[in-house]
Design brief:
Jelly Rolls; 17-stranded mixed sheet; 3 helices; four-stranded mixed sheet; mainly beta; 353 residues; disordered N terminus; 2 domains
Length: 353
């Protein structure tokens, strides 16, 4: 009798939690830059091969397990057909060399694709790939994805990524308004895969070229996994402060040159042949692979101080925000449990009368 009496409560409690989860109105983070945001997006690239159109008008090899498909207008057909396409735009533009010691870059949508995972030890079957290569004419093919919101004001941006291939390019995940209002995660390709750059632009004095203290951090990976393996990266931009995390642990933070303008969110893989990126040899390639991207953000048009809704934490379950336990919710659940126990006891007592 007890189990039968408790069963409806189990359904009711389950329904309550589902309803609360579906009604998240704000989203919270943890750490030294803990904050609450109005919007949440999660883009999962780990098992989507069966959900997209992989037929190719033309195919070009990117190396082992990397393929791209292009339509007649040069767009990646896989990217065009993907269910997450509405959230991102693949850039198609030519960036001429600004200096004599740099090279031209061609950002092409076809450099963005979905790759099959050939490592049977990993659970995911696919991942997003950005690809760059040095062409025979000396220029560089590059890749960039721009998030649809162009008026982000404060954000926590996260990804699971690895970077591999030849030295001479930079994988970037960052917020951008202009060259003096930008916050970056930048990861060099190739080499010993043992360094990550965090920065708020500008990092040098525009008049003297002297580095600005607290504007940039070069974090060694010697005590961590190399960047050529999967790592979780996180950048938090809150009012007056930026912080960077890797695999759940904070790596750096600063109050210097924190962005104060509405911004874009960008992923890119590029090389201009300059001092910072380095320069690939002709025909060399590099890849920026991404399992998932998680974004929490406010916008200039919708920031709100309303705290009457349900705040959900993103820290306990990847891709599935869960309601923060409020005193009211705890009291409600406690009362329901004691009510169920009382009802079950009453039913059991009556059954033996």
């Amino acid at each position: 009798m007890f189990s039968s009496a408790a069963l409806p409560l189990a359904f009711a409690a389950s329904f309550l939690l589902v309803q609360v989860s579906a009604e998240c109105t704000q989203f919270s983070t943890n750490g030294s830059t803990a904050a609450t945001y109005d919007f949440y997006r999660f883009y999962d690239f780990r098992n989507i091969r069966d959900d997209i159109d992989g037929d190719a008008a033309a195919a070009s090899s990117y190396g082992k397990s990397h393929t791209a498909t292009e339509s007649a207008n040069g767009q990646s057909k896989i990217f065009q057909a993907a269910p997450w396409n509405s959230g991102w735009t693949a850039r198609d533009w030519f960036r001429p060399s600004p200096k004599n010691d740099t090279i031209d870059m061609h950002y092409k949508p076809s450099r963005v694709s979905i790759s099959n995972n050939t490592d049977i030890s990993e659970e995911h079957s696919t991942y997003l790939t950005l690809h760059t290569t040095r062409l025979s004419d000396g220029s560089q093919l590059a890749a960039e994805l721009d998030f649809a919101e162009y008026n982000v004001t404060f954000a926590s941006i996260r990804m699971a990524a690895r970077i591999h291939g030849a030295s001479g390019a930079i994988a970037g995940f960052f917020t951008y308004h202009d060259d003096i209002s930008e916050s970056d995660i930048e990861i060099p390709t190739g080499g010993s895969a043992d360094e990550v750059h965090y920065s708020n632009q500008p990092t040098t004095d525009p008049d003297t070229g002297v580095p600005i203290d607290g504007a940039t951090f070069n974090v060694s990976m010697e005590a961590r996994q190399p960047t050529s393996t999967w790592n979780n990266y996180r950048l938090d931009w809150v009012d007056g402060r930026s912080a960077w995390y890797m695999n759940g642990a904070q790596s750096a933070d600063t109050e210097v040159n924190v962005p104060n303008r509405e911004s874009m969110i960008i992923m890119s893989l590029w090389s201009n042949g300059g001092t910072f990126s380095g320069r690939m040899d002709i025909g060399q390639d590099a890849w920026f692979d991404v399992q998932w991207v998680e974004l929490l953000f406010n916008t200039s048009s919708s920031a709100t101080s309303d705290t009457s809704g349900t705040v959900c934490s993103v820290e306990s379950s990847l891709g599935s925000p869960t309601p923060n336990a409020s005193p009211c919710l705890r009291d409600l659940v406690t009362e329901c449990i004691w009510w169920a126990i009382g009802m079950a006891s009453t039913v059991s007592f009556m059954a033996f009368m």
